[in-house]
Amino acid sequence: MITKDEYDQIQNMIRPDNIKPMKHVFAFTGLIKCGECGATITAEHKTKRQINGNVHYYTYYHCTKRINKNCSQRVIQVQDLEKEIAEILGGLTIPPEFNEWAMSWLKDENHKEADDRNDILDTQQKSYNECVKKIDNLIDMRAGGEISEQQFKDKKAKIVKEKMYLQELLKDTDKRVDNWLERAEEALIFAQNAKLAFENGTLQRKREILNTLGSNLLLIDRKLRINLENCLLPMKKVDTGSDNKKSGFEPLDLCLDKRKNTALGGARPDWLRWQDSNLQPLR
To answer: Distance between CA atoms of 6 and 221, rounded to whole angstroms?
Structure first.
């Protein structure tokens, strides 16, 4: 037998009100703003039960309307939003002119990185060698009876600690080689692999790709508008039949050198600030 108090406690524990709601993971929350009012785009799951017993699950993205409660923007299903993103990714390519310039730029940057890294390594290596000399001198001093055993132990502990610290600095600097190589490789292959990686990736991977595309992601009229970062603009596929060819890039004030300007001009990117998901200029 159980007491009434125990019975009430059990009932409170199993009541539906005490069932914790399932937490859902949304790939694109926090990355997109409403193109009408500027509020954040959020997401939610919806369940629809039909009379015949069928159950359908939907994921919608929509404006929170925290800035303007009268915002007129409608919801968009996650499949449609992903299609918008995939179309943008599918429109990215690396034209030969840009690739040639990029490889030359990469070599220049690599030389700068190597010089900087080697200067740091030289300084750190000198400090490390001096530390090793301190250890050698300490041993000589102890062997010559110049310092006591306790003094030897105290100085040894201090120098060994310094030696370990310098070793870590050398390792960290050495890792710059791998980190630099990884960053350079990612920059060059992003446009080639992003669409496939997005379509087959996990939620986290999709989020990373979308975040890499650029800043100021806007959703308006169920269309995703994106301000591609300057580094990705030259990779955008353009309509070769356009009569709107621009010979220079003054509107963006990118301070391009002559070689870069020629390469990007040959690639014929559309330098308008905003683009829709079909990669056409906004009117």
So the answer is: 56
- pLDDT tens sequence across 150-168: 888 888 889 888 888 888 8
What are the residues whose beta carbons fall under 8 Å from the beta carbon of 100, sequence distance 6 or more?
Answer: 263
SS3 category, 192: helix
User: What CA–CA distance (Å, rounded) separates 236 from 228?
Assistant: 9
Q: Is there a contact between 31 and 213 (Cβ–Cβ < 8 Å)?
A: no
CA distances in angstroms from 246 to 60, 99, 203, 276, listed in the order given: 40, 20, 38, 20
Whole-prediction pTM value? 0.42
What is the H or E stretch that residue 27 is in? none
Q: Please give the helix or strand (H or E) that residue 8 lies within, else none.
A: helix 4-14
Q: Per-residue DSSP letters for 115-179? A: HHHHHHHHHHHHHHHHHHHHHHHHHHHHHTTSS-HHHHHHHHHHHHHHHHHHHHHHHHHHHHHHH
Range 79-93 average pLDDT: 77
To the nearest 10 degrees (0 to 180), the angle between helices 203-213 and 78-90 is 50
> Virtual CA dihedral for 263, 267, 271, 275, nearest 10 degrees?
-150
- Residues in the chain, how many? 283
Separation between Cα atoms, residue 67 and residue 85, nearest integer Å = 25
Residue 259: CA atoms inside 13 Å, Cβ hemisphere, count?
A: 7
Rounded CA separation 94/151 (Å): 65
Report how far Cα 171 is from the mean position of its chain's Cα atoms.
25
Instruction: Tell how strand 55-63 and strand 214-220 pair up.
Output: unpaired
Alpha carbon distance 167, 44 (integer Å): 50
Please give the structure tokens belonging to residue 18: 């005490």
Summarize pLDDT for 188-204 with one digit per residue, the tens: 666 567 667 777 877 67
Distance CA 283, CA 266 (A): 24
